[in-house]
Amino acid sequence: LHVRSRRQRQMCIRDRVCGTNDLWAEFDLSREWSALEVAIGLGDESQSGETVSFEIIGDEERLARSSAALGESETLVIDVEDVLRIRFSADGPSSCQDIQAVWGDPVLYR
């Protein structure tokens, strides 16, 4: 994660997704941040004509949900005030085509 403070890190989650809750990653935010900005989309090698649903869960509550197809991207800005743990998940088509879900360039704001 790219953090707007002294400590900086970058992250890109990119993997093949097939079916429900196939791809996810979870992070500890320690209730220290106010907002998260992250881009979603599909990898260039993904099969065309399919979409992936992206979801962000904070402490068991849905904070954001969106979807993307090949050639589409979206930047999400989410309130994460008082969130302890955050989960990024992606659900793909049940057909299990070659689809790569991508979470890119996340930035946390204090």
Summarize this structure briefly.
With 110 residues, the chain is mainly β. The protein has strands at 2-3, 12-16, 23-28, 35-42, 51-58, 61-69, 73-79, 85-91, 100-109.
Helix content: under 10%
> Sheet bearing the most strands, described?
5 strands, mixed
Q: What would the average pLDDT be, to the nearest integer?
A: 81
Head-to-tail CA distance between termini: 13 Å
What is the overall shape? elongated
Return the string of H and E elements.
EEEEEEEEE
**Beta-strand percentage?**
over 45%
State Rg.
14 Å
* Record field, number of beta strands: 9
Number of helices: 0
Q: Uncertain segments of ≥5 residues (pLDDT<50)? A: 1-10
What structural category arises from helix and sheet content?
mainly beta
Walkthrough of the structure:
This protein has 110 residues and is an all-beta fold. Helix content is 0%, strand content 56%. The chain contains no helices and nine strands. Strands 1, 2, 4, 7 and 9 form a five-stranded mixed β-sheet that branches. A hairpin with a 2-residue loop joins strand 5 and strand 6. The protein is elongated, with a radius of gyration of 14 Å. 26% of the residues are buried. The model is unreliable at 1-10 (pLDDT under 50).
Overview features:
56% strand, 110 residues, 9 strands, four-stranded antiparallel sheet, disordered N terminus, mainly beta, five-stranded mixed sheet, 0% helix
